[in-house]
Design goal:
The complex is a heterodimer of chains A (about 200) and B (about 575). With about 200 residues, chain A is α+β, with helices and mostly antiparallel strands. Chain A has helices at about 20-30, 60-70, 100-110, 135-145, 180; strands spanning about 5-15, 35-40, 50-55, 75-80, 85-95, 115-120, 125-130, 150-155, 155-160. Chain A has two domains: about 5-80, Alpha-Beta Plaits, CATH 3.30.70; about 85-155, ACT-like. Chain A, domain 2 (Alpha-Beta Plaits), CATH 3.30.70.1150. Chain A is elongated. By secondary structure, chain B is of the alpha/beta class. The longest helix of chain B is centred in the first third of the chain and has 15 residues, at about 50-65. Classes of the chains: A alpha+beta (about 200), B alpha/beta (about 575). Chains A and B meet through strand 1, helix 1, helix 2 and strand 4 of A and loops of B.
């Protein structure tokens, strides 16, 4: 019965009404499910917002999270896309200390990671990067020695690949494949982002 | 003819159109416009003495009738007083609508007088809630709220309406069409393949047990459950809230399961090879230790709420949906069978129960709660609606009052709310004016909400109240006896003279100390036009048996010692 805990990613469509975020967050608190990250914003439908929620749980808990989310009247659709072929992305901004000597080195690293410098000050740089959590972790690791002054991360957003709808039947799921690692097509294959 | 109405008028107009005839409430500043408008509508308002009482009354009304119960309160303290009653209704899936006044919309967030974030406070204990600050949304919100409360798995819904929305006016456009909510799908249907799998398990089972939970009554599936049980000869065990869903006298009905369930029922569950759980949720009070729970049994779980599947007990087949519809689809696949060996085994397990049954105790001068409840059952021919509080008397009622009809036992199961019985009984009586309604409460719980005796007097309500008075918070005392070396911390309880108290309220009272007085007292109470409070002074340190200690395996019960020692113990002390 001790099933494996892993990160589950849920895409949740909710009615765009006041207090709905609170209802969703309250549900996770109430049932003692720990949220790794939660992002929310507009979706393709004007009356609906779209959330991406990442939770570390076993498969049984993931099912219960889905069922409990459906109990919220304002929740329209819930999809556990953990095992579906999907694209996951996160955006991060990193403010790094620079000196005249280190600035060029840092900008080279930024290039290698296909990140962007979005602000330059005499003694600091702000770097913006988009990618998988692993890529961001990799960038942070190489920036760490220069001194990270500030870091902000959005948390994961996700979308299924191809034209298929968001609904994925359990039988279609690819078992035990970690899509986050699989998801390297837009990255430079010569660069390892692993930490 | 103008259709312009104030928000306050719209509240009542909507309730009346929804079929609401009785509401339970307490006025105050933020709900005053609604109260003013109420006088012009054909609604009976019951003035409670505490808003908790209003919610329990609405709950009792809903449980007795199957229809929405409505409670009304003002903002701030009025609304927060409702919290216990709302949580009670939530855990027992009871459809109630709470309407609360809120401060004016421009004052929200300003910590205004009697302002509380009531939708925030009640968010985790309501099925859904609403804050309405626009008069145009009052009618549609109440219409939707009642639909949400009553459909799918029922539950409490709260509508918080600002004072300015009550005062504003608008054209009332009544839309009685079905509510459409994009994400709310109360009607679930399991797949055909799942039905086949479930039926295969049933047809192959040699030692199956049906669990009848509250869902049997909520779904109205009483007859279907019996049909299935009779055709396949499957014995039935009930949860506390399932009592009444299957007639107590039916030969296949084994009785209540769980912590204070019948010993043979728990034994049968542990020996079963298949459990068919109908509208119940494997609460810890019915499973005991999960690691040792029904290890030999496959499990089929039917529930309208898929979030209940695999929550506490891992099941083999989960069928989501309304029980009545699921059984209609499932039954054709189920083969008849006699299962004589299994039924005989269960009968054998009943074995020594008769010698332990306190009913067989000769009158030794002591009054036992079991006798009182047994006599109430006997003299009411088992036909009363009994509303119980929480504690020892609640378990004795479940054991000794044999309910044959659905919705005749009303009790707070999931939350275990002391103080529930008296107000809930008022609600049950108003839902069924012709029914005989009894309260069975302990001396502790009764004192929590006994102010509602004034409500009974003012509203001229006739019920019978049996206070099982043992001078202790009995169930807590029992745990102290078993698990805390009889260190009776804060459980000895002083009570007023309940009979005199009743008279103070203009009601009738009686005090009963011996077994021979019980029958005449019950007779007298039943023929009294007024509500009667009967103060039964029972054995102080009596214990509910059998008992599965918390965390123990379901069949590791503490049993009532054979009868002779009880008599001695009683006389020793």
């Amino acid at each position: 019965m001790t099933s494996k805990r892993k990160r589950h990613t849920f895409v949740v469509y909710v009615e765009d009404k006041p207090g709905v975020l609170n209802r969703v967050a309250s549900l996770f608190r109430r049932r003692a499910f720990n949220i790794d990250s939660l992002t929310v914003g507009h979706s393709e439908t004007t009356s609906e917002s779209r959330m991406t929620i990442v939770v570390e749980s076993d498969v049984g808990d993931a099912r219960r999270i889905e069922a409990n989310l459906y109990k919220l009247v304002n929740v329209v659709r819930v999809h556990d896309i953990t095992h579906a072929p999907s694209i996951f992305r996160e955006l991060a901004m990193v403010k790094v200390t620079t000196t005249i000597e280190t600035r060029t080195q840092i900008m080279q690293l930024v290039d290698v990671f296909r990140a962007r410098v979005v602000d330059v000050a005499p003694d600091s740089l702000v770097i913006e990067t988009t990618g998988t959590e692993e890529k961001i972790e990799g960038l942070l690791e190489v920036l760490q020695p220069y001194g990270i002054l500030e870091l902000v991360r959005t948390g994961r957003v996700g979308m299924l690949r191809g034209k298929q709808g968001i609904a994925v039947e359990p039988s279609d799921r690819v078992e035990d494949e970690d899509p986050a690692l699989d998801d390297t097509d837009t990255e430079d294959p010569n660069v390892s982002y692993s930490v | 003819m103008s259709n312009v109405r104030t928000g306050a008028q719209i509240i009542w107009e909507t309730l009346v159109r929804e079929g609401v005839k009785t509401v339970f409430g307490y006025p105050g500043g933020a709900i005053l416009p609604a109260y003013d408008a109420m006088l012009d509508y054909p609604v009976r308002h019951v003035l409670v003495r505490h808003e908790q009482g209003a919610t329990h009354m609405a709950d009792g009304y809903a449980r007795a009738s199957g229809e929405i119960g409505v409670a009304v309160a003002t903002s701030g303290p009025g609304a927060t007083n409702m919290v216990t009653g709302i949580a009670t209704a939530m855990l027992d899936s009871s459809p109630i609508l709470c309407i609360t006044g809120q401060v004016g919309s421009r004052l929200i967030g300003s910590d205004a007088f009697q302002e509380t974030d009531v939708t925030g406070v009640t968010l985790p204990i309501t099925k859904h809630n609403y804050l309405v600050s626009n008069v145009d949304e009052i009618a549609s919100t109440i219409h939707e709220a009642i639909y949400v409360a009553c459909s799918g798995r029922p539950g409490p819904v709260l509508v918080d309406i600002t004072k300015d929305a009550q005062q504003a006016s608008t054209e009332l456009e009544w839309d009685s069409s079905d509510v459409k909510l994009p994400g709310y799908a109360p009607d679930l249907r399991a797949s055909q393949a799942e039905y086949q799998r479930a039926a295969d398990l049933i047809n192959r089972a040699k030692r199956p047990v049906i669990f009848a939970g509250h869902g049997v009554m909520l779904s109205g599936a009483m007859r279907q459950v019996l049909d299935l049980a009779e055709r396949a000869n499957i014995p039935i065990a009930m949860t506390l809230l399932g009592i009444g869903g299957v007639p107590a006298e039916h030969p296949l009905n084994m009785g209540m399961m769980g912590m204070h369930g019948e010993a043979w029922v728990n034994e049968a569950i542990q020996e079963a090879d298949l459990l068919l759980a109908f509208g119940m949720r494997f609460d810890d009070r019915v499973t005991g230790n999960l690691k040792t729970y029904a290890l030999n049994a496959r499990k089929i779980h039917v529930d309208i709420d898929p979030a209940e599947f695999n929550k506490n007990v891992k099941v083999d087949v989960a069928l989501a949906g309304d029980l009545s519809m699921v059984l209609a689809d499932l039954s054709p696949f189920v083969e008849s069978g006699d299962r004589a060996a299994w039924l005989n085994t269960i009968n054998d397990m009943k074995g020594d129960v008769a010698v332990r049954d306190i009913q067989n105790l000769p009158d030794n001068g002591h009054l036992y709660a079991a006798h009182v409840i047994h006599d109430i059952w006997r003299m009411t021919n088992g036909k009363a609606i009994v509303v119980t509080d929480v504690g020892q008397h609640q378990m004795w009622e479940a054991q000794y009052y044999r309910h044959n009809e659905p919705r005749t036992l009303i009790t707070s199961g999931g939350l275990g709310t002391m103080g529930f019985a008296l107000p809930a009984a008022i609600g049950a009586k108003l839902a069924n004016p012709d029914a005989e309604v009894w309260v069975v409460a302990g001396d502790g719980g009764f004192q929590m909400t006994m102010a509602e005796l004034a409500t009974i007097a003012q509203e001229n309500i006739k019920i019978n109240i049996a206070v099982i008075n043992n001078g202790y918070l009995g169930m807590v005392r029992q745990w102290q006896e078993f698990f805390y070396e009889r260190r009776y911390a804060a459980t000895p309880l002083l009570s007023p003279d309940f009979a005199k108290l009743a008279e103070c309220f203009g009601l009738s009272g009686a005090t009963i100390n011996t077994r021979v007085e019980v029958e005449p007292a019950i007779n007298k109470a039943r023929s009294d036009e007024r509500t009667v409070v009967m103060d039964f002074h029972v054995e102080q340190e009596d214990t509910v048996y059998p008992m599965v200690p918390a965390g123990a395996a379901l069949n590791k019960m503490i049993r009532r010692p054979s009868l002779a020692p009880i008599v001695e113990t009683a006389e020793d002390e």
